[in-house]
Design a protein that fits this description.
It is built from six helices and three strands. The protein is mostly helical and about 120 residues long. Helix content is about 40%, strand content about 10%. It is globular and about 50 Å long.
Amino acid sequence: MPAMTKVGLLALADSKPTRVDMPDGQHVFVRVMEGFERDEFERLLSGDKMASMRTWLTVHCACDANGKRLFKDSDFPDVGKIVSTALDPIWTGAFKANKLGVKDVEDLLGNSDGSPSDDSGSA
């Protein structure tokens, strides 16, 4: 298989949004973070603003069916006021869409002890 080209890599900037069903019967879409956003998310995890992760992921990953973000960075304070039961499905969907797992977060936080996590599937 040939190596990727610049054009081929830049074409990966677009990804199909994932539908997330909300508790009230409606739905929203989430998108995969861009490289800069993922870097910022990882920096957030290693800093003192970890408590804002749910809101941060909602602001950066909630999107319309075409992948256009629903929120601007300046909407962060307003999104933080949304009830957590509404943010939870978006958070979970963003984690799945971005292939984030408990181990990823533990590794970024430095909490991994090298043993398998409870969700590893091993007994």
